[in-house]
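> forwarded from #structure-qc
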């Protein structure tokens, strides 16, 4: 390369044409992952025709997390694939350390691909606790992440906790496609919400499939709004006197909630009941709902969810339950659980994540992923 001199004799670099500056190749993409879900990271890299980057994450004898990145990440776009599992705390620390390692190594951008965001259910104030999702969001932004790709957040409002862009992908197109192609006579089905809190999601499925809707309501309901919130001090008693409150007035107490008996709003007799939710972890509520659906005449019971965490002895409970089939995506690894319960089926969503990465890297619109029902493999 020849260097040019200006009139003052100083050296200046040669001019670059606009096409050279605007062109972005796949060599600028580096995909790395932690220990949470290496199979998903390999599938995404394979779909994009890339090699998984050289990053090793391990733990010392005192359980400290060590991250070693063997390849250069200077000036490159880094995509860290790390989901949440039953080992959520280690998953988070691995992600934060990997992001900070890339930041201090002068990476151009660092995108966190987190199919299941840990602590997403702790997105509201409970008693005298805190909103853990907001704390986690602040930690991720501070670590160096410049973008987040996730899927089916427990509450969409969690995106507001982040100071960086968040793309909340949807797994519903894959689940809808499974219903249409893998459930025989799905036209004779009814979409079921196991509690009123899931009614909005169930209604969306029912409208897209042109099916009926049923909602289970009663004492089995465990909505977040029913949890006791003890942030406020108890009202003053008759023995206490203040300058602003009279003893005779007092503060009215909230009436105690009395839940009605467990009932089903909707007709499920002789139909296939399909329960939908965003997460399956503690399955007792699903098992109880399936028993009630069968008692009310449902011929089959399916459970569809995006994230299959399936903690504790959930596989055994599902195997012994009246549920005929459980369908989840591979946002969380559950191969061991599938060995314990043959009813669990898995839908691969790696193509959706790969397409999202490709579009973000090429600065293309993401609305296509929310507008179209299916993706061609």
């Amino acid at each position: 390369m020849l260097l040019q001199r200006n009139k003052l004799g100083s050296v200046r670099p040669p001019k670059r044409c606009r096409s050279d500056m605007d062109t972005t190749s796949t060599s600028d993409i580096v995909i790395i992952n932690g220990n949470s879900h290496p199979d998903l990271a390999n599938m995404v890299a394979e779909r994009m025709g890339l090699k998984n980057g050289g990053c090793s994450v391990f733990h010392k004898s005192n359980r400290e997390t060590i991250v070693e990145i063997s390849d250069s990440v200077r000036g490159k776009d880094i995509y860290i694939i790390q989901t949440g599992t039953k080992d959520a705390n280690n998953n988070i620390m691995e992600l934060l350390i990997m992001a900070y390692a890339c930041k201090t190594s002068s990476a151009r951008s660092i995108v966190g691909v987190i199919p299941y965001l840990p602590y997403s259910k702790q997105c509201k104030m409970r008693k005298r606790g805190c909103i853990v999702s907001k704390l986690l969001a602040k930690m991720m932004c501070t670590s160096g992440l410049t973008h987040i790709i996730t899927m089916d957040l427990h509450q969409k409002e969690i995106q507001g906790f982040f100071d960086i862009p968040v793309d909340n992908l949807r797994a519903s197109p894959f689940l809808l496609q499974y219903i249409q192609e893998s459930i025989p006579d799905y036209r004779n089905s009814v979409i079921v919400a196991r509690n009123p809190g899931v009614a909005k999601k169930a209604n969306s499925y029912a409208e897209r499939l042109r099916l009926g809707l049923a909602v289970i309501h009663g004492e089995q309901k465990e909505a977040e709004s029913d949890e006791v919130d003890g942030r406020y001090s108890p009202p003053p008693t008759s023995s206490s006197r203040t300058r602003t409150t009279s003893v005779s007035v007092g503060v009215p107490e909230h009436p105690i909630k009395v839940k009605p008996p467990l009932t089903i709003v909707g007709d499920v007799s002789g139909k296939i009941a399909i329960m939908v939710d965003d997460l399956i972890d503690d399955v007792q509520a699903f098992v109880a709902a399936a028993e009630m659906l069968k008692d009310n005449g449902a011929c089959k019971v399916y459970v569809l969810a995006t994230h299959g965490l399936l903690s504790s002895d959930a596989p055994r409970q599902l195997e012994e339950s009246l549920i005929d089939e459980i369908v989840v995506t591979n946002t969380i690894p559950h191969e061991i659980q599938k060995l314990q319960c043959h009813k669990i089926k898995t839908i691969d969503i790696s193509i959706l994540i790969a397409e999202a990465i490709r579009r973000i890297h090429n600065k293309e619109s993401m609305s296509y992923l929310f507008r179209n029902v299916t993706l061609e493999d």
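QC bot note: The domain at 29-169 is CATH 3.40.50.2020 (Rossmann fold). Residues 88-104 form the longest helix (17 residues).
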